[in-house]
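Hi team,

As requested, here is the filled-out complex form for the guanine run. I kept the field names the same as last time so the parser does not choke. Let me know if anything looks off before we queue the next batch.

— J.
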Amino acid sequence: MTAKTIDGKAVSLKIKEQVKTRVEKLKEQGIVPGLAVVLVGEDSASHTYVKNKKKTCESLGMRSDLHQFPDTLEEAELLSVIDDLNKDPDIHGILVQLPLPKQIDEFKVIQAIDPSKDVDGFHPVSVGNMVIGKEAFLPCTPHGIMKLLEHYGINPAGKHTVVIGRSNIVGKPIGQLMLQQDATVTYCHSKTADLASFTRQADILVSAIGKAKLIDHSFVKPGAVVIDVGMNRDENGKLCGDVDLADVQETASFLTPVPGGVGPMTIAMLMENTVQSAENGLL
Ligand code: GUN
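And here is what came back:
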């Protein structure tokens, strides 16, 4: 069996086209969806992510404001910026790029965002609503993964999903979204003993651990769907995921490549959440 490639780039383009149409409709009513992105410090990956988010916003006709600060920014100053953005009627989404410098309490900052503008889906109110299956902004990467599965006709119901990683951004929420679609979910993480004994039981394997090419065919059940959330550099400095794609190709049924798999979906879902937030303002 040769695995089918899950083309996140192609699916994300379709979603962005739909977002663009929704933006045009809003503009006819005098509303320009606006995303405020807050970036603190010099982390180069964060700068790249933020640049891409801004560029995508603008390509879809949305407003995008970047609020950039040095890594010496005090927590109180950041909280005051968020307070202003919460009150700004032209801003529909607020995204604070993580990680933040260590003098700033991330949780306090996330909590300060108005949940109605929480397009990252990180606020405890959003997380709570997601877990109980109520309307909420869903975190962009896990939501993007669910959209990919849907697009390729992969139904998680009754399947064993094994998640590697337990971050608040990806690992925990992807397990919850899978559970809501009737998957049986196992969480593995850095302290899991004999990781492969769990991953080999997965019908759907989601890897979000950040270890270049760790997952080879010995971790994968024949016919499994393998979703790679890793963004790593290999020994030559080339971008790669957690999965050794070449080695797993003949074992898995579906694979997401890195780049071009989950990554483009994250931005597309952020755009969708932002336009949704602007539409919610009309309700
Ligand atoms: N840092 C890494 N991924 C993300 C993300 O999806 N959102 C934010 N705000 N920060 C991140």
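Two things worth flagging: The radius of gyration is 19 Å. The longest strand covers residues 34-40.

Thanks,
J.
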